[in-house]
Amino acid sequence: MPNHVKRKWVPFGKEVRRLRNEQGLSLAQVGKRLGVTGSLVGQIERATRVAKRPYVDKLDALFETRGELVNFWLDTQREGRVHEDFRSALALERKAEQIREYQSILFPGLIQTPDYARVLVKARNPLASEDEVEELVTARTDRIGELRERGSLLWFVVDESVVHKPIGSPKILAEQLQWIENLAQSGTIRFQVLPLAHHPGLCAPFRLVTLDKRRMVLYAEHAVGGEILESLDLVSETLTLFSAMQAEALSSQASVELITKAKELSKR
Predict the structure, then answer these.
(1) Third-level CATH fold of 84-266
(2) Which residues of the chain form beta strands (DSSP E)?
(3) Cα atoms in the 13 Å half-sphere on the side-chain side of 258
(4) Angstrom distance (rounded) from CA 129 to CA 210
(5) Beta pairing partners, 226
């Protein structure tokens, strides 16, 4: 159906429309630059048609987004059926200089192994096909490589219960713990375990993303996704909470030692 909305492309289409309106251009004007009709540009904006890569390159040049629109297009292809709210969080990652994340229930998605992620994806999407599951797993686990290449600072604090929580099987947990150990020891991430006895305040998982020296945003998780918040007071309050968690958590080295012990226990 030519007019069927392709849901995963809705955010990309909205971004194209926003950029076009900022430039004060009509659909026909943009279409002329792309060598297509204004109607086709409208279809891209409404997500009833997927933009081809050559069109995206031309749009990127036209709107002077310096590769960001191309990255958005590539991410949308890769993200598959990820919830629309979380796609906004993923878009922040493309610009992140630093990410600080607290998790109280599971290892953060950024540092999950494919098997660990697969168990969670299947539990959350019981009717999904194998292809859909793998698409989501890949979208979740591939992101760490891109952030590592960019040299982004990644700092995680997790509750101690996360380290011992069996997900899928003891083997899957052991491999997950080994992956965390590898990432921490290689310097890819900074990782701290927070004992419940020293917890400065139980709360839902959250992520603080530093975009540049002047801007930090908060991604607060909830049951079906999350919400991006930019209130200076709220961001400042959450940063203070994260700092308190860092102070009360085990040191990076002690955290790795705890993970190593937990890994050995999970193999028994």
Answers:
(1) Endonuclease; Chain A (3.30.870)
(2) 98-103, 153-159, 190-194, 206-212, 215-222, 225-229
(3) 19
(4) 36
(5) 221
Please tell me the CATH code under which domain 7-79 is placed. Answer: 1.10.260.40
User: Could you tell me the strand order of the sheet in which 225-229 lies?
Assistant: 190-194, 153-159, 98-103, 206-212, 215-222, 225-229
Parts of the chain belonging to CATH 3.30.870.10: 84-266
Q: What is the pLDDT along the chain (268 residues), one digit of tens a residue?
A: 446 888 778 888 998 999 999 899 999 999 999 999 999 999 999 999 999 999 999 999 999 988 888 878 877 776 554 445 455 667 777 778 999 999 999 999 999 999 999 999 999 888 888 888 888 888 888 888 888 888 889 999 999 999 999 899 999 999 999 999 999 999 999 999 999 877 787 788 999 999 877 889 898 887 666 788 888 899 999 999 999 999 999 999 999 999 999 998 877 7
Intervals of CATH 1.10.260.40 along the chain: 7-79
Q: Which residues pair with 227 in a beta bridge?
A: 220
**Tell me, what amino acid is at 66?**
R
Residue 151 near residue 90 (C-beta atoms within 8 A) = no
CA distance 53 to 18: 19
pTM, to two decimals: 0.69
Give which of 55, 53, 60 is closest to 42, Cα–Cα.
55
List, in order, residues 6 or more apart from 18 with CB less than 8 Å away: none
Instruction: Report how far residue 169's alpha carbon sits from residue 117's, in angstroms, rounded to the nearest whole number.
Output: 12
